[in-house]
Amino acid sequence: MKANKTSLNIIISVTIFLIISVLSIYTTRVFLKDAFQNLYLKQLFFYLIGSVVTIFITYKGFNLLKRYHFLVYIGVNILLLSLLIFGVSINGSRCWLYIGPFSFQPSELMKISLIISIASIITKFKQKKDKSMKAEFILLLKLFILTLIPSILTFLEPDTGVVIIYFLILFTLIIFAGINKKWYIIGSLFLIFILGCFFFLYFFNRDLFLNILSSNIFYRLDRIFNWANNSGFQLENSLIAISGSGITGFGFNQNPVYFPEPQTDFIFATYTANFGFLGAIFLITIIIIFDSSILRLVTKKIKTIDKYIIVGIFIMLFYGQVQNIGMTLGLLPITGIPLPFISYGGSSLISYMFIIGILLNINKERLKYRN
User: Which of residues 14 and 365 earns the better pLDDT score?
Assistant: First the structure.
């Protein structure tokens, strides 16, 4: 029982997330149209489907995924490309593929595929004797191209927030791999150059800027400027709801403040409005316990590739948690990143349950090896 404490912590945390998610989404009904009154039931259904996915990945799917990771990577890129051709535009974005009554976001699958592919490539590199600058350059070039392809396809949807996650996964795993420090200097100079070109075109050549990035970029920049000015209807009302909720909240299903997307992007504000400061502290505590359980796995005796995969999973989840809560509080720009396991959404939730299966599989294999 003691050896299985990590898996138990993960399962209990996800169960609490389920309860918080369904209750919070239920309270948004007063602000949603009639067609969206049953979102809390759909979220519960997604959790049930996700549980089946978790069981499959825990006992069978993860090993298959590691073996055929590159084929999966190619397949998901084809889905991302098909979005630009066949995807239905909703609020100016082509992020969802529709198959009959069902829809899903290929970018959610790409996060997982990218983590496993990057981890696999780095692991194979670590097993080689050649660790020269040339060998590291080839490694970095492979990883950059691997990340750039889905990033371009996802950016064109457009979904800037997910692109940030792709590159955050890449940079984190490169740092964790412990490459030569000279590459950090080179990478920093390259990033400064790219940002310099971006702002130069933005301020001095708007026509070329629009030709490269399209007019949608101004909407994304407006979100950043609204955050910097602490303005915008959505953010202002979110802050009113959170600050006015007090210690225990307005009461369950009694939130008097409306803000757009209360069931997705601003689910933390919805939850806090209902359960107040104490509720927010409780949720953040569970998140910390959950994240700590994931990090502890990295310190255990597990396969090298699994260590990289866990680090990639952790940074993806941690960024989502910090970004979502931070933007709700006005501390970070609004990027549309959901709060993992809490925000409404079938694709994102099932992908997170997929990740739970990976974590439980790694821990199961560790315990089997230990025994």
Answer: 14
Q: Which long-range contacts (CB under 8 A, 24 or more apart) does 313-317 make?
A: 313/115, 313/355, 313/358, 313/359, 315/168, 315/169, 315/172, 316/111, 316/115, 316/165, 316/168, 316/169, 316/355, 317/291, 317/352, 317/355
What is the DSSP-derived secondary structure letter of residue 370? H
Q: How far apart are CA 351 and CA 109, in angstroms?
A: 7
What are 168-215's pLDDT values in tens digits? 999 999 999 888 778 878 888 888 888 888 777 777 776 766 666 655
Tokens of 30: 């007063």
Decide: helix, strand or coil at residue 49: helix
DSSP secondary structure, 203-244, as one string = HH-HHHHHHHH-THHHHHHHHHHHHHTT--HHHHHHHHHHHH
Please count the helices (runs of H) and the strands (runs of E) in the chain: 14, 2
Give the confidence band of 224 by pLDDT, cuts at 50, 70, 90: low
Spatial distance between the Cα atoms of 245 and 239, rounded to a whole number of angstroms: 10
DSSP state of 341: T
Which regions of the chain does DSSP assign to beta strands (E)? 97-99, 102-104
Cα–Cα distance, 153 to 139 (Å, whole number) = 22
What is the rounded average pLDDT of the residues 13-23? Answer: 97
Contact 169, 118 (CB under 8 A): yes
Please name the residue ranges forming H helices in 229-345. 233-244, 267-298, 304-328
Residues 6+ apart with CB under 8 A from 140: 174, 179, 183
d(CA 199, CA 204): 8
Please choose, from the candidates 137, 15, 50, 142, the residue with its C-alpha nearest in 3D space to the C-alpha of residue 353. 50
Q: pLDDT tens-digit profile of 37-69?
A: 899 999 999 999 999 999 999 998 888 889 999
Residue 98, SS3 per DSSP: strand
33 contact partners, CB below 8 Å, separation of at least 6: none
What H or E segment, with its residue span, contains residue 80? helix 69-86
pTM: 0.89
Over range 11-36, report the average pLDDT. 92
DSSP assignment letter at 90: B
